[in-house]
Structure formats: C-alpha cells, structure tokens
Amino acid sequence: MSNTAAVVEVYFDGLCLPKNPGGIACYAYVIKEKGGRLLHSGSGVAAEPSAQSTNNVAEYTALIKALEWLDENGYTSHWVEVKGDSQLVVKQMNGEFRVKNKQIIPLFQKAALLRRKFRDISIAWVPREQNSEADKLSERAYNNALLENPGLLDMIK
C-alpha cells in the first residue's frame, strides 16, 4: 500500500426474509474513509419473492453495488478493504470455495470483473457484530420494501 493511497472501508450485507430461499432478498452497503467518515451507503431489493431470491443473491448484490459505486466515483486507485459477514461470498471471492450454484455464477463473475478494476483491494470476513451498520440498513431495506409494496408478502409461497 502506498502512502498516498487513502484507505476506504466497505461493509456489505444481505438478507432474505421472511424465509430463505423464496423471501424478499435485500442488500445494503456502507462505504467509509478509514477514519470513519461516511462516503456513501446504499440499500434496496435484490430480488422479489421467487426461487431465485436467497441470502447469497442479496449478499452478492450488496458487494456488486458497492464496487460499482466505488468504480463510478473514482476510488479504483485507493486501497479498499471490503468486509462482510457472509463466509460463502468472502471465501468464493478469495478462491477458497468453488462457485457451484448456477444462479450465483453470474453474480460471482460480475463481482470478480469489478474487483479487477481496483489496484489494491482485499475482501475479508468479519463477525456480524462488526457489520452492524450494513446489517441494519439491509433490515431497513426489507421494511421499506414491505411498506412500499404490501403485496410482496402475498407472493411468498
């Protein structure tokens, strides 16, 4: 890491409620400077109730959306530390686990392509307690989805 590169921390999270799979998959991410100043955060619905709606889809969507924002806003030359509480996503992104699920493969490929744009990037697992801000945002995204479209729960089989 060079002395001139600022450190950016990214926290990502996803959930699928009220059941996984098949619930409402929501994502969230928080991007901060190393000192803690918020640069950006985002959240939303990754997938409406269907067989394709899972925690893993939500987690990957959060990672992709965060990396896209960093890329679009000129942070690819910064030292980026990505942190998430999904062991599956972190281990797949770091080459420790193979990606076998057909619906996850395109998300993994998109995240991997985005990752290559960054000069210095690490993706690490953190316990849920260290990911509480993104976790709360993903829960808020779920609650907002229900408020905006009460019929979503009726779609869950």
From TrEMBL:
A GO molecular-function descriptor: nucleic acid binding
Q: What class of enzyme is it?
A: hydrolase
Q: Which domain of life is it from?
A: Archaea
Q: What range(s) does the RNase H type-1 domain occupy?
A: 4-147
**UniProt xrefs under InterPro entries:** RNase_HI-like (IPR053576), RNaseH-like_sf (IPR012337), RNaseH_domain (IPR002156), RNaseH_sf (IPR036397)
Quote the Pfam families the UniProt record gives.
RVT_3
| Catalytic activity, EC | 3.1.26.4
Name the UniProt key words of this record, in alphabetical order. Hydrolase
* Name of the protein described by the UniProt record: Ribonuclease H
